[in-house]
Amino acid sequence: MKKVVVLALLMVASVTFAQETKKQSKWIIGVGANFIDNTNSKDNNFANVSNWNATIGVSKLSAQYFYNSKFSVSSEFSLNRLDKDVEQNGETIDVNMAYFGMDLNARYNVASWLKLPSKYTLEPMVGVGASWTDGTPNKSVNTGLSIGYQINDIYGIRLQTLGKFASEQNTVGNNMIQHSVELYFNL
Questions:
Q1: 99 found inside a domain
Q2: Sign of torsion, CA 27 30 137 130?
Q3: What does the angle CA 43 – CA 48 – CA 50 come to, to the nearest 5 degrees?
Q4: Do the domain assignments include residue 155?
Q5: In this structure, what are the phi and psi dihedrals at residue 49, rounded to the nearest 5 degrees?
Q6: What is the dihedral of CA 131, 158, 61, 51, to 10 degrees?
C-alpha cells in the first residue's frame, strides 16, 4: 500500500511541476530606434557612422509572432529622415526627406546551432518591405540578421541589421542598410 501511495504522490508531483513550467510567449512587441545607412559608397566605406540618418526618440515599432521556438514572423514599422548633410546614394540631396517603412520578415533562430545559452537569439531574416521617401513609394526585398538577449521573463533587447534591396532604383530611398536597437516585451 505504501508503494501505491508513494507512486501516486510522485505522479501528482510530476504533473504539478510540468504545469508550472512557463510556456514561451507567442507574441513579442518591440520599441526602439533605427539608423539608415543610404550612402551607396563605392569606396567600401560602410562603417562611416557620420553618414547614417537618424531621428531623436522612438523611430521603430515591431510585432513578432512565434509559430514554434525557432520560426517566427515579424512586422516592423520605421520612421526616419534622410538628411541633406550626409550622403544619400553616393551624393548629397538639397533638402531633408521624410522616410517611412513597413517590413514583413520571416525569422529563424539559429542560436542553438552555435550552442548559445537560451537567453540569446540569433535570427537570420528574409522578407519584403514597402517604403515612402517624401511620399514616393518603393518596394524592397529584405535580408538581415538580428541578435537578441532576453533580460528576464518579460523583456529583452535586440540589435538588428536589415539590407533593403529596392525594386525602383531611381529614387533617393532605394537600396539601403537599416540598423536598429529595440527593447522588446513578451506578451
A1: yes
A2: negative
A3: 130
A4: yes
A5: -65, -25
A6: -40
Residue 111 lies in a domain: yes
- Whose grid coordinates read 553616393? 90
Asked if residue 146 lies in contact with residue 72, where contact means CB atoms within 8 angstroms, the answer is no
Q: Which residue has the higher pLDDT, 30 or 168?
A: 30
Q: Which of 141-167 are b and which e, b meaning 16 or more Cβ less than 10 Å from the residue's Cβ?
A: ebebebebebeeeeebebebbbbbebe
> What is the pTM for the complete model shown?
0.81
Count the domains in the chain: 1
- pLDDT tens digits for 89-104? 777 788 888 999 999 9
- Domain containing 126 equals 24-186
Q: Is residue 158 within 8 Å of 167, Cβ to Cβ?
A: no
Which CATH number belongs to the domain containing residue 94 in this structure? 2.40.160.20
Q: What is the CA radius of gyration of the chain?
A: 22
pLDDT of residue 84: 85
Q: Which three cell numbers stand for residue 65?
A: 509572432
Q: Which three cell numbers stand for residue 137?
A: 513609394
- Write the pLDDT tens digit of every residue in 1-27: 555 544 444 454 444 444 444 567 799
Reading the block at residue 129, the C-alpha cell is 518591405
